[in-house]
Amino acid sequence: MKSIYKTLLVTGIVLASVCACQKWTETQVQNPIKLTGLVKDDAYYEALRAYKQTDHSVAFGWFGNWTGTGSSMEHSMMGLPDSVDFVSMWGGWANPSKEKLEDYRKVRELKGTKALVCFLVFDIGDQITPPAPANYEGENWRHDFWGWGETMEEHIAATEKYAKAILDTIAKYDYDGFDLDAEPSYAQPFATEKELWRAGPEIMEAFVNTLATELGPRAGKGKLLVIDGEPEAMDKKYADAFDYFILQAYGEYSETSLQNRYNRQVNHWLKAEGEDIGLTAEQVANKLIVCENFEAYAAKGGVNFTRPDGSRVPSLHGFAMWNPSYDGKTYRKGGVGTYHMEYEYAASGEVELSGQEGKYKAFEGYACTYPWLRKAIQIMNPRIY
């Protein structure tokens, strides 16, 4: 009973921590708790970590420009809202500095926030191939280093070696998992052969199956394996390998457009009658995280998002308000997130919305860091305190 009380208690305090606030009222109240302050003692952090183990819509982001240092907390994981569940490190995870490791370990141990390695997966050895030695005289160092030869057997062996090296990197720094950025059909601003996708389905099978020995639901070791970009590019037989499907829903402006994105995932992953693989519509919804592009829209909280009643909100808040439906039933989504979440650190939390009078404000009467994301968390997990 004590642990349950702490879990309920923290849901009221973590979502607005760092804000200089005195009170909060919410029209949709779940498990209301009256608090007398925002003291962050051991009990607070114990309850915060317990909260993150509960079944809820998560808060996520791709965290870039990470240094772990500075006079402000903008470039530190400790500066993220307490109730952010996990982040994917958009760079900075390789050979981390002492300051980065201290920042990461502190935020995980204290707040229970997880950090995942993340990068685009196209060609053998992406991101972790060491530089070619000075005396190298071959034609393709990456292929030679990993053993990517001419036969399918060599391709598979090289891919398994590559995936194991990723696992070794995660283990070396005790990171919390891997975010597989899958964009096989997207044009890229750099040269790539996309050989892991084009050499045959056996290649990605070897890659995912190797990662899944240590990460994700199959492994059951508490380490996450998620996929973003185009989850539907994966064969349905990998449905049980990933914790979350993360969609780059950049600039989406209505619930209809979000529903269409969900429908695409359901059409791909749905377990048909008589099949042994796949997911239910509810399971797809629970894995689905929809994300906005804060590299472009951090100041405004997204684009103008039109609600079913005609009102408008910043798109991140529209994402938070929406839940997917299938066959007449509505299900809880996995959560929301932002790309380059750190760009929101100093956002004002106020925006002019076209067609509406007055400014839309994330919070009335006070300012805080990450105002749009904090409000989105409140929307998904409403409490009063």
Brief account:
This protein has 385 residues and is α/β, with parallel strands linked by helices. The chain has helices at residues 2-13, 42-51, 98-111, 141-146, 152-173, 195-198, 201-211, 216-219, 255-269, 281-287, 294-297, 315-321, 371-380; strands at 58-64, 86-90, 114-120, 177-182, 224-229, 244-248, 288-293, 304-306, 312-314, 325-326, 329-330, 335-339, 350-352, 359-361. It has 13 helices and 14 strands.
What does this protein look like?
A hairpin with a 6-residue loop joins strand 13 and strand 14. The chain has a single domain (58-380), classed as TIM Barrel (Alpha-Beta Barrel), CATH 3.20.20. The two termini are 20 Å apart. The longest helix has 22 residues, at 152-173. The model is unreliable at 1-18 and 20-37 (pLDDT under 50). The protein has 13 helices and 14 strands. The strands form 4 sheets. The protein has an 8-stranded parallel beta barrel, surrounded by 6 helices. The chain has 385 residues and is an alpha/beta fold.
